[in-house]
Amino acid sequence: MRILHTSDWHLGRSLYNKKRYEEFEAFLEWLILTIQEHKIDTLLVAGDVFDNGSPSNRAQNLYYHFLVKVASTSCQHIVVIAGNHDSPSFLNAPKELLRELNVYVIGSITESIEDEVLLLTSNNQPQAIICAVPYLRDRDVRVAEPGETIDDKNANLIEGISQHYGEVSRLAEQKREDLGNPKLPIIGMGHLFTAGGKTLDGDGVRELYIGALTHVHADKFPASFDYIALGHLHVPQIVDKKEHIRYSGSPLPIGFGEASQEKKVIIIEFSEGLRKIEEITVPVFQKLLRISGSIEDIIERIEELKLESAWLEIEYKGKDIIPNLRQVIDEALVATSLESLQIKNRQVMEKVAMAISADETLDDLDEIEVFNRCLDAFETSEEDRVGLISAYREILRDLQEEDLNAE
């Protein structure tokens, strides 16, 4: 039994308004070749298939075209769970049709928890039991109580998540016992933030969860899981030094903060009760580079890179005011295969800390930075800021998790 673990595709995501469909298509084509080369039996997609709940037609086409092509490979099963970016109802809508292609979709917590425990077979022989737990929203696992503090809420949320995993694992163990096959692997799936998980600035995860207590500890996962395929964090990583609990990470860099990171997918092989884990490096389909320094440093670096093809994020850190900074940089990029997606003027940003100038737009800020500026403008005390920022992050998560396609 050979399983491939991937997650966080974020199909349809753009970078500074630059469309990235060619990258997504190149990755999915590579993934099909990897499935064929390594004779993968089962593909696990641990959430955030799409970047938002209403993906474009082109993003949808990439997804469904990929599923159809995989059906003609050695891969006999695909299990897809929803992440916090996915619309549960959107993912679930074609699940009965996709089931005919041996694609199992779990878009949201199910009415019957047994539906999250999947027995995968080949030639009528059991191969593995998959506990396909989707992203668990607050309302899925916790009942709000009057007077509860933020700490109480977070503790109850973690306890609710832990109980849910405990229930699916007990069902899986019972199923394995009924089959009389103690070596049948049980695989857990999830989309969540584990305690100690690594994030990167600008990855869209760090901003919402930094300082939060809703981080699930590794010991909350049942011991019966032979492997746990996680999504949500974009950095490939092992959880709490436990080799069998892993994030595959996002296959494409979500932003320039991930530009230098080596992306991975993970292959897990089970044979006669033994487990072997192998990481496969994902190729770079579109090079991203950060350049910073004085205008002389920037021009020199562009000259060094002129024969390469890359998208650039440029930050000017010089002391002099350069009113035509963009024009100077654009002229340096002429006759190269380099493209500047964003130019940040640190000198202007520092001098005009509270104002949005002609050289600074909302694209330069995230929601937390905007809120912090509001707090600065109203001279909010440090004591009040802590609670307000925590509540604001909670509101952002609730908005992100809202399923606009549900009726």
Describe the overall structure.
This protein has about 400 residues and is of the alpha/beta class. The protein folds into 2 domains: about 1-280, Purple Acid Phosphatase, chain A, domain 2, CATH 3.60.21.10; about 290-400, no CATH class. The protein contains 12 helices and 15 strands. The chain has helices at about 20-35, 55-70, 90, 95-100, 140, 150-180, 205-210, 295-305, 325-335, 345-350, 365-375, 380-400, and strands at about 1-5, 40-45, 75-80, 105, 115-120, 125-130, 185-190, 225-230, 235-240, 240-245, 265-270, 275-280, 290-295, 310-315, 335-345. The strands form 3 sheets. Strands 4-3-2-1-11-12 form a 6-stranded mixed β-sheet. A 6-stranded mixed β-sheet has the order 5-6-7-8-10-9, with helices on one face. A 3-stranded parallel β-sheet has the order 13-14-15. The longest helix has 30 residues, at about 150-180. The protein is globular and about 75 Å long. The two termini are about 40 Å apart. The model has no long low-confidence stretch (mean pLDDT about 90).
